[in-house]
Amino acid sequence: MAKVGIVGGTGYTGAELLRLLVGHPQAEVGLITSRAEVGQRVADALPMLRGHVDLVFEDPDTAALAACDLVFFATPNGTAMRYAPALLDAGVRVLDLAADFRIKDIATWERWYSMQHAAPALVDEAVYGLPEINRDAIRGARLVANPGCYPTAITLGLLPLLETALIDPTRIIADGKSGVSGAGRRATAALLMAEVGESFKAYSVAGHRHEPEIEETLGYAARERVRLTFVPHLVPMVRGIEATLYAELRGADVDLQQVFARRYAEEPFVDVVPADLALETRSVRGTNLCRIAVTEPQRKGVVVVQSVIDNLVKGAAGQALQNMNLMLGFAETDGLDGVALSP
Amino acid sequence: MAKVGIVGGTGYTGAELLRLLVGHPQAEVGLITSRAEVGQRVADALPMLRGHVDLVFEDPDTAALAACDLVFFATPNGTAMRYAPALLDAGVRVLDLAADFRIKDIATWERWYSMQHAAPALVDEAVYGLPEINRDAIRGARLVANPGCYPTAITLGLLPLLETALIDPTRIIADGKSGVSGAGRRATAALLMAEVGESFKAYSVAGHRHEPEIEETLGYAARERVRLTFVPHLVPMVRGIEATLYAELRGADVDLQQVFARRYAEEPFVDVVPADLALETRSVRGTNLCRIAVTEPQRKGVVVVQSVIDNLVKGAAGQALQNMNLMLGFAETDGLDGVALSP
Amino acid sequence: MAKVGIVGGTGYTGAELLRLLVGHPQAEVGLITSRAEVGQRVADALPMLRGHVDLVFEDPDTAALAACDLVFFATPNGTAMRYAPALLDAGVRVLDLAADFRIKDIATWERWYSMQHAAPALVDEAVYGLPEINRDAIRGARLVANPGCYPTAITLGLLPLLETALIDPTRIIADGKSGVSGAGRRATAALLMAEVGESFKAYSVAGHRHEPEIEETLGYAARERVRLTFVPHLVPMVRGIEATLYAELRGADVDLQQVFARRYAEEPFVDVVPADLALETRSVRGTNLCRIAVTEPQRKGVVVVQSVIDNLVKGAAGQALQNMNLMLGFAETDGLDGVALSP
Amino acid sequence: MAKVGIVGGTGYTGAELLRLLVGHPQAEVGLITSRAEVGQRVADALPMLRGHVDLVFEDPDTAALAACDLVFFATPNGTAMRYAPALLDAGVRVLDLAADFRIKDIATWERWYSMQHAAPALVDEAVYGLPEINRDAIRGARLVANPGCYPTAITLGLLPLLETALIDPTRIIADGKSGVSGAGRRATAALLMAEVGESFKAYSVAGHRHEPEIEETLGYAARERVRLTFVPHLVPMVRGIEATLYAELRGADVDLQQVFARRYAEEPFVDVVPADLALETRSVRGTNLCRIAVTEPQRKGVVVVQSVIDNLVKGAAGQALQNMNLMLGFAETDGLDGVALSP
Q1: Largest Cα–Cα distance in chain A?
Q2: Which CATH architecture is the domain C150-310 placed in?
Q3: CA gap B283, B287 in Å, rounded
Q4: CA B323, CA B310: separation in Å to the nearest integer?
Q5: What pLDDT band is residue A9 in, cutting at 50, 70 and 90?
């Protein structure tokens, strides 16, 4: 069994990593850290793990982490970049679920994240952990940047269109909707159920940090500059992301269904569904799947793609496990074969 | 006091008409009909009206309706068009909350609603009941077609841009989100809470009946053909519509905030909010308000408009009351001055 | 117009006071305070009040408050007791929506609220503001303690049974359920939607502060010691309280429906419904009503009472307005005649 | 691999059986029936099963069912009793998830279910499928009656108290709360999200069919007549049941925690948690666990038990799998070892 560490175990992505790793046939959690909860039993903080996990939160100590085969950072932005150099030097693989290594352009990163990068030399080496585009690079990587939740849903929804140059890359609209767990477990009045329950709103309309990440990734796929307008929204539910994507078709009479089906034929975690199937976020709840539907409504020249994921799984912990499986040479689907919880 | 009738009193729009009319200073409900509930006390079917309403559901009888000053049709599509001719002949004003008179092009209407129009001669006379564009015509009208819920939110959000030719009218995206009450009170498994709770989805992606209505109305405002891609979504909440609208700006350096503020300066039920205010559906819950925010994110040449309404009020019963107030010569805000219920 | 002040205007009860006072025919808000938000426009913090309220949050300054006819304290426990003496001396009536003056036994109060009482001399004078038992005393009162939300629902549900000695007062069970707004607007992780959405739980099972308040009030009604077991629960919704009350009947063949109907015949805000009506919290949403149903299931000797209120209205701000109406000599229902928002 | 059949595959319990059986190491679904959906692919009706299940709904044909080792009936009440005799004769084991064989007293059953029993001769043989009391009998059984969802939560919560005669069996209160999936997938207006969302209510207060089932089962445990008052409530969430149970302690100074811990020490699916842990339904979501907390608040002589299950798992399909594992000689936890999905 490989031994993995989790830094930052009390947030939702840390908890979800634990949930998924409980069922993993080849890896087990050797240590989990939480500065705020040192000494507390994990199963006391996260009662759904009672009977499954017998760990205690520890202090994030580099020596202990260095004894792991791989360390997940389920921490706020700006944490992994401080630990990564020493861990990599010690031969440990590092997988950051936050944003520290997602953007290659450091100036762009520093502007959107309002801090100085602590490990700029590693940014180039880091592999963007979206297996559907970087599978081989992830296999050999020491350092992987797990994509954001919106970027995963949106990038997978647009890839087939941009790779085949079927759409105008400068006129893309991404209307994203996320359940509230996407905002994490911070104690903030704005995310109280009494504030966000039974209501719906857009947020960060002026600009969201995931936008440069998406534009950069899609730019590689399109081999030209991508201009995207992205507006995220908050849905009064706990889990799930849906992105509705709009773009102008460059040609007519393309079999969109076939373009998508072909692109993702071999992908274990992307499911292209018939255009007339109602694509609900619950159909992927708890799983690592991205389900996608594509159509050109009313033949107006605008392609509409729907893409749904579970923000905590394919949008965070599940994708991290998929990457870990690749990095450590396990079967890509190990620990990720559950059925969605629906209803 | 004017005496009004409500045909179809057991659905959500009928119930909401009753709620609002209870507090109206100049109009009272003379009769309310429901074929399925004849003889039942209204307050038994709708317990929130206990103590406020002492009516009994009656059979929809033309003679009794003809004794009203105005009759609301809170009925399925295809009902009002069968009653309207006789009632108008009897001197009664008619206000249809369904779709029978919303679209001027009868062939388009018949295609989208899959039935033959029973009163084509009245379609031209009917006034589209959006006071923000048709106030004077509504004042003199005998027959008013109350707009759909999505069309209200979307049209008000785009009007200032199209009237001033600031955007390309052929590249508009309307991403709509609605609470579940928008689907009415039909007994259908697809709308059970166990089906739509804690999940999010798009629906009618291939084409929604409100699309031709919106395109027609916006076309008059733009004085040219409008091409819109509209995708509605279902939000796991009861009330509220949010529409996020995307369009390409034709010029630069326009003060969008001022364009909207000026357009709606005199409108009692449109509130243009600062671009940085989080625009939540709950901020209009229970009220006849449409609140709108406008911005050009990251100066990319794409204008983003957010528009929120309560689908049962400004999107249905409240707008119907606003129209009634105009038709019967009352103050436009009579009965519509409540504060939103938030949280 | 009477001029009232609100101390603590940014919580849910403060906001709800504002919503209700906007429509009050005889009183208007002269000033509103919030230490944290001094200088901010109220309508910026509470967007649902845009267009209705033109106030700015002020510092809680005794001189300014002393210019009001009545001051509401929508503050944390322990605040009103520090302001009340000076305000009362200045001839201002004081209405505390928190717990400072709810319990007559000061030792009991200090044990449950873990602080020393700052104005013990006023506790005796304070009138418990449940008009259904203390209407006349409230009329003449300078200082009123507005009841808690659970105590309102539970006390009104049990009063008719205890006043007539129909039940064993030592074997009462109160199973309470509250929407999340009952917990206020504090930034705490435990109340995030991601924590409490799509889940249900009991809390404070070991003992809740409202229990001694309920036992004391019911004891006066029963004229003997009442022993109650009260367990509150958190419902994944925003507004509403339901209490299901269980007690052992002392005799048989009582017409429970009539006992309740008679007790509340003259009460404007208590509605005794037929036993077979589904009693939903939404039937009172936004209103000052308490609706009650009573029955003896299966003739087993146990009476079951259901009681529903809106925790922010009859459970807080609405009841405060009802008390204000009595204290200032207005009609008791002024400003409180809206219909529930349902659905 | 054992081959099992599912009769009635389109409801929530049928779907949940499929979800759980996908991961079962020893059993596979040989056929699934649905009269209404004959010929439809299961994964089209239940999209969360895309990629996992390649079955087509078939007509419920006795010959095909007779080829199974075990048949689950996830059907309305009154169905299994018509099929069971022939299947048992054919040597097939039968597990009914509905109520046909839950109550031994046939007259009681016929009164509560308003139909005549079609297989009274089998009622005695049928084993009540609660492994925590009938494990050995289930192992040898041909016919098992899977308990109702409320009875599972309530019985497990009261067993340790009744078996040890610690409480008065004639004064028990069970206040149950269920998510909406407990009502099944019937197209009925009363269960629309617009009807039950953002609201809370009791239902069936006059008497619920699960009450005689609970009283009978608890009576065997107590070896005396049990009188229980049970009031179920509907929670605006999809999954989960919480029951708060109240009973009068017969003696003092009992270590309740130890009584429960000892009773369930060997049970794989009952978890007795510390009394001060908030017991949330989400802590068991998707799992076969029943978590229980017990305490005597304020030493008042009343014991309060909280019991939570997932109504579709331990309250239906999961318990059915647990029973199947026992009946077919598999490990009791096979296919049931997942971690709860929380948040």
Answers
A1: 62
A2: 2-Layer Sandwich (3.30)
A3: 9
A4: 16
A5: confident
In the numeric block, the tokens 């305490």 are attached to D295
Instruction: Give the end-to-end CA distance of chain A in Å, rounded to a whole number.
Output: 34
Fold for domain A150-311?
Dihydrodipicolinate Reductase; domain 2 (3.30.360)
Query: Residue A57: which residues within 8 A CB-CB, separation 6 or more?
Result: A9, A10, A32, A33, A34, A37, A38, A39, A40, A41, A42, A45
DSSP helix/strand/coil, C271: strand
Q: Where are the domains of chain B?
A: 2-125, 150-311
Q: Do D237 and B189 touch (CB under 8 A)?
A: no
DSSP conformation class of A254 = -
Residue contact D207–C295, C-beta within 8 A: no
**Whether the Cβ atoms of residue C290 and residue C270 lie closer than 8 Å to each other:** yes
Give dist(CA C56, CA C69) in Å, integer: 19
Question: In CATH, what number does D2-147+314-327 get?
Answer: 3.40.50.720
The number of C-beta contacts closer than 8 angstroms across A and B is 149
A246 and B229 within 8 Å at the Cβ level: the answer is yes
Bond before B232 cis per omega within 30 degrees: no
pLDDT tens for each residue of A31-60: 999 998 999 999 999 999 999 999 999 999
**Would you tell me how many other CB atoms lie within 10 Å of the CB of residue B28?**
12
- Provide the shortest C-alpha distance from residue D27 to chain B (in Å): 28
b/e for B259-285, b at 16 or more Cβ within 10 A? Answer: bbeebbeebbbbbbbebeebbbbbbbb
- From the list D74, D104, D100, D70, the residue with the least C-alpha distance to D87 is D70
DSSP letter for A94, please.
E
Task: Of B16, B289, B23, B329, give the one whose Cα is nearest residue C25.
Answer: B23
HSE-up of residue A18 (Cα within 13 Å, Cβ side): 35
DSSP state of B253: S
SS3 (DSSP) at C175: strand
**How sure is the predictor about D11, in pLDDT bands with cuts at 50, 70 and 90?**
very high
Three-state SS at D159? helix
Report CA A103 to chain centroid distance, whole Å. 14
Give the Cα separation of B98 and B11 in Å (integer): 12
Task: Name the interface residues of C facing A (CB cutoff 8 Å).
Answer: 12, 179-181, 183, 185-189, 191-198, 236-238
- Distance from chain centroid for Cα A168: 26
Rounded to whole angstroms, the Cα distance separating A233 from A205 reads: 9
Annotation says A149 is catalytic: yes
CATH of the domain spanning C2-125, picked from 3.40.720.10, 3.40.1130.10, 3.40.50.720, 3.40.50.300: 3.40.50.720
D229 has pLDDT over 90: yes
Distance CA C293, CA C259 (A): 12
Say if residue A343 is preceded by a cis peptide, omega within 30 of 0: yes
pLDDT for the residue C9: 86
Q: What is the pLDDT of residue D242?
A: 98
pLDDT reading at C253 higher than 90:
no
The set of catalytic residues of C is: 149
CA triple C309-C312-C317, angle to 5 deg: 110
Contact D315, D241 (CB under 8 A): yes
Mean pLDDT (whole number) for B269-296: 97
Arithmetic mean of pLDDT, C152-179: 98
Residue with tokens 């799509």: C198
Contact B193 D12 (CB under 8 A): no
CA nearest neighbour of C194 among B181, D126, A195: A195
